[in-house]
Amino acid sequence: MDFTMGDAAAELRGELRRLISAEVPADFLGAFTDDPADLAVAQHFCQTLAERGLLCAAWPPQFGGRGSSVWEQTVVREEMWAHHEPRGAQYMGVNWVGPTIMRHGTAEQQRLHLPLIARGEVIWCQGFSEPDSGSDLASLRTAARRDGDGWRITGQKIWTSYATMAQWCFLLARTSSEGRKQQGLTVFLLPMSAPGIVVRPIRSMLGPHHLNEVFFDGVRVTEADVLGTVDDGWSVVQEVLAFERVGIARYARCERLLQAVPEMLGERWATMPAQLRGRWARMLTRARRARLLAYQVLAAQRAGRVAPGDVAAYRIAVTRLDQESASLLTELAGQVSTDDDGHRVFRRAVEDHWRYANAATVASGSIEMQQILLARALLGGTRRTGDAA
Questions:
Q1: How far apart (Å, rounded) are the C-alpha atoms in residues 112 and 101?
Q2: Which residues have CB under 8 Å from 311's CB, separation 6+?
């Protein structure tokens, strides 16, 4: 495969790095901390990106984008994740909520939701996992029962990132109990302000906003809230998961932190044990491998022939990279002095990376489920699916 992105992508990468340097504080380590100023930085930066047409660069102009190539959008994704995601929670709306609404939404849903996402003015959360339905998502029990010309939704979701701040929820609920468990599921676009929704934060080492329980007590929805076809939500979700799993370019953050190590250690780098430097070189190689696996999936999506096994292979590679690089970086960061702000920020960045790496094994589908998907693909049990958007 030819992974050359071209001059336009290279120029865009330079533009993004200049913007980040000018607009994002050097000690920024993510929007979802105990300091409200970090969220304010992300919200302002989203506006800056949107004004330049960079927040949703690959979206068609009629939906608020500028029609850039998938590779230019990949550059945006990589630079954002390499610099601790200064878009905050917007990647969810940009990477998969918006494209899914483009593909399956009604004209009214597109008019309502896409401009808000493109301007960075709305935050979405994902109502998928439940206490007894995490990796086995199709076994979920949150139910939407017919009520006149609409439905009443009752149930519970868990691990719902950004639920305390989100205005909308991309919700999967059961609308029929007939047939296989993958049948009878429907996607609803649900306002988080609807009566009957209660959000309870779950404290964790990842910081505020990341983990929450969401309870639905007879929440009223209408036909206008249904995305796609009633009872056919599973096919929509399969597209969503493919976009979500390849849309988080965590390899870019791993590579940036690894590349910073020699500079952070200075003269001490040359005296590091050969075994340690060898592990560092292997991690860099694996970061490049994860990048190329992501590019392979993106090229397949562009050609309209995505295979779940390909996405699973990427997720396995990037998850293991996350965890093993976090272990190595933690060991190396312990050798970095705290003499100046740059060194202290690097040590905090490594600590932040370690926390997320521990959660990566279950985020967006556990690594065990990814291994099952890959095994099925290798054994010939998986058919290729169409491009998501």
A1: 10
A2: 241, 242, 245, 246, 297, 373
The CATH number of domain 249-378, selected from 3.30.750.24, 3.40.50.300, 1.20.140.10, 3.65.10.10: 1.20.140.10
For the chain, give the number of residues. Answer: 389
Distance (Å, whole) CA 98 – CA 90:
10
pLDDT per position as a tens digit, 343-361: 999 999 999 999 888 876 6
For residue 156, list its beta bridge partners: 215
- The whole-number pLDDT of residue 362 equals 63
Going by C-alpha positions, the residue among 190, 214, 210, 216 that lies closest to residue 200 is 214
Q: Which of 120, 173, 116 is nearest to 145 (CA)?
A: 173
Q: Which helix (H) or strand (E) holds 276?
A: helix 274-303
Tokens 């958007």 sit on residue: 389
Do 162 and 92 form a contact (C-beta atoms < 8 A)?
yes
Radius of gyration of the chain (CA): 21
C-alpha distances in Å from residue 97, one per residue of 21, 68, 94, 240: 28, 18, 6, 8
- Tokens standing for residue 220: 């009223």
Helices (H), 122-269: 233-247, 250-265
Q: Report, as residue numbers or ranges, the catalytic residues.
A: 244
Q: What CATH fold (topology level) applies to the domain 126-233?
A: Butyryl-CoA Dehydrogenase, subunit A; domain 2 (2.40.110)
- pLDDT tens across 137-177, in order? 899 999 999 999 999 999 999 989 899 999 999 999 999 99
Residue 346, helix vs strand vs coil: helix
Same topology for domains 126-233 and 249-378, yes or no? Answer: no
Asked whether the beta carbons of 170 and 132 are under 8 A apart, the reply is no
Domains of the chain, by residue range, sit at 7-88, 126-233, 249-378
Pinpoint the alpha helices (H) of 87-207.
90-92, 98-104, 107-118
Query: In terms of DSSP bridges, do strands 168-174 and 124-127 run parallel, antiparallel, or are they unpaired?
Result: parallel
Name 251's Cβ contacts closer than 8 Å, sequence gap at least 6.
Answer: 287, 290, 291, 294, 318, 321
Highest mean pLDDT among 5-19, 265-279, 309-323: 265-279
For residue 143, list its beta bridge partners: 154, 174
